[in-house]
Amino acid sequence: MIYPITLYGDPILKKPAKKVASDQKDVSVLVADMFETMSHASGVGLAAPQIGKSLRIFVMDSTPMKASEEPSEPGLRQVFINPEIIEEYGEKWPFEEGCLSIPGIREDVLRASHVKIAFFDELWKQHTCEFDGVDARIIQHEYDHIEGILFTDHISAFKRRLLKGKLTNISKGKVDAEYRVKVPYRK
Ligand code: NI
Question: What is the mean pLDDT of residues 6-29?
Answer without folding.
Answer: 95
